[in-house]
Amino acid sequence: MESEELRNVGLKVTTPRLKILGLLENAKSKHMTAETIYRQLSESGEVIGLATVYRALAQFEAAGLITRHQFEGGQTVFELERGPHHDHIVCVRCGRVEEFYDKVIEDRQREIAEKLGFTLSDHALTLYGECSGGTCTAKNG
Amino acid sequence: MESEELRNVGLKVTTPRLKILGLLENAKSKHMTAETIYRQLSESGEVIGLATVYRALAQFEAAGLITRHQFEGGQTVFELERGPHHDHIVCVRCGRVEEFYDKVIEDRQREIAEKLGFTLSDHALTLYGECSGGTCTAKNG
DNA sequence: TCTCACTTGAGATTCATTCTCACCAACCAG
DNA sequence: CTGGTTGGTGAGAATGAATCTCAAGTGAGA
After folding, report:
1. Is pLDDT of B141 > 50?
2. Are residues B52 and B95 in the same domain?
């Protein structure tokens, strides 16, 4: 139950928050912008202000329910915090986002940070390229 | 001579471009925002519009003279393209930026992109952590 | 020096995000 | 179940980074 999730992180259970969380859990595309969420909610008849979407997303992020990714080109997407860590590859033409995980890279990162005298707390790895074939035509995926 | 660099990449040699390029070459901090560049030029008495700064930086980037990096927090910094490719590790406490290059990671990235059906055009890898010892105290380095 | 295409500066504009504020709804007490 | 308090909400204004517009300016070849 989504209300549980909200209560667990100390957020009051409200209709907008439930709708937004529900959308994130059921959306076909895992990575959504605030605008996309707002538009999809509007289309399903919900009257939820854009400001509320941004507010809720910020709170969810602070609570660790979702993660924010800032890709180049000003595209900021949110993703439900589920499953293991992964990085992203973004198509610069159609905006499609794929996920990947590579142990070699992960390990190297830690080694590099250590060698430079840093205690690694986080990292952002995003690859940019063009995806091939018919998948890359639409405006989004 | 900076005018050479401009001519070589097919840009007309103008005062604003020379000033901006010169600032990038002499600045104490390698990574600068457009705003910072604009402010520093203004402070040294140059009358250069912010729009011109953005335009010039975009042109320099297109010409390969400089590189654009988008770190967390939406801060976009520019850096003179000198020496080989490298990625960054940023101290989340003091803001210090170190550079590194790792062939293993570079190679893996290309392999991953290929495996996923992407033609890699670029990548952004930034590590975040805390740098150790006395180096990490000031507000910047 | 003259000319013209390319540049520039100031301000308007855009776009994503955040803020403001009057109104409203969730939750606890009764 | 109901009313009060407190925090949440929506609409639109405000912000800030970046881009565009356009009249005026300037580099560089003739």
Report:
1. no
2. no
Beta bridge partners of A76: A70
Provide Rg for chain B, Cα atoms: 17
Query: Mind listing the pLDDT tens digit for each residue in B25-49?
Result: 998 888 999 999 999 999 999 999 9
pLDDT tens digits, B74-108: 779 999 988 788 999 988 777 678 899 999 999 99
Can you name the residues that pair with A32 across neighbouring β-strands? A78
CB contact under 8 A, B123 and A125: yes
Which of A116, A130, A132 has the most B C-beta neighbours within 10 Å, making it the best mutation to test the interface with B?
A116
Across the interface, whether the CB atoms of A121 and B92 are under 8 A apart is answered yes
Neighbours of A45 (CB within 10 A): 6
Chain A residue nearest residue B92, CA to CA: A121
Q: Residue A25 belongs to what domain range? A: 1-82
For strand C, list residues 11-70 of chain B whose Cβ lies within 7 Å of it.
11-12, 14-17, 47-52, 55-56
Q: Are residues A78 and A88 in the same domain?
A: no
Which position has the token pair 């402010």?
B39
- Cβ-Cβ contacts under 8 Å for A3 (sequence gap 6 or more): A13, A18
Q: Which residue, B87, B122, B98, B84, is CA-closest to B30?
A: B98
Section B49-71 average pLDDT? 95
CATH number at residue B27: 1.10.10.10
